[in-house]
Amino acid sequence: MQSKHLRFGKGFRPAFALRKVQAAEMVIPPGGSEGGPGNFHRGADQWVYVVSGSGVAIVDGARRTLRAGSLLAIERRERHEIRNTGRTPLKTLNFYSPLAYDDAGEPLPAGRRAPRKRTPR
């Protein structure tokens, strides 16, 4: 079993991964955005659940309004951007299948797994 208390601080932060699914928290300040016209995940689907705040997702040119409780599935290779259109931080919980980022939040090449952490003996 793994668990973690999510703080939803600033920016993007992977939480942890289990087998082929990864969880991450993302906070976008008012007026900010993540992604853009050239942003896509080569090898991972992304599920975005809005915890709080409001915004818009632009996925392959289609716009979807986001608010607390919204769930959005972005398929691998779909170009996407998430924008905060509200007055408070847009806080999302994201799931990637398979893993899309290493522990530092850097993108993994398509089809690659994050290196396992080795524990001292």
Précis, in short:
With 121 residues, this protein is mainly β. It is built from no helices and nine strands.
What share of residues is helical? under 10%
How does the overall form come out from the CA principal axes?
Answer: globular
CATH architecture of the domain at 26-97: Sandwich
- The level 1 CATH classification of the domain at 26-97 is Mainly Beta
Largest sheet: 5 strands, antiparallel
Q: Describe the oligomeric state of these chains in a short phrase.
A: single chain
Radius of gyration: 14 Å
Helix/strand order, N-terminal first: EEEEEEEEE
Number of strands: 9
Counting helices, strands and paired strands, the structural category is mainly beta
Strand content: over 45%
Using the coordinates shown, work out and report the CATH topology of the domain at 26-97: Jelly Rolls
User: So, the CATH homologous superfamily of the domain at 26-97?
Assistant: Jelly Rolls
Question: Could you name the ranges where pLDDT drops below 50 across 5 or more consecutive residues?
Answer: 117-121
Strand arrangement within the widest β-sheet reads: 1-2-9-4-7
Compute the number of helices: 0
How far the N terminus sits from the C terminus, by CA atoms, comes to: 21 Å
Could you characterize what this model shows?
The protein is built from no helices and nine strands. The chain has 121 residues and is mainly β. The chain has a domain at 26-97: Sandwich (Jelly Rolls), CATH 2.60.120. The strands form two sheets. A five-stranded antiparallel sheet has the order 1-2-9-4-7, with no helix packed on it. It has a four-stranded antiparallel sheet with strand order 3-8-5-6, with no helix packed on it. A hairpin with a 2-residue loop joins β5 (54-59) and β6 (62-67). It is globular, with a radius of gyration of 14 Å.
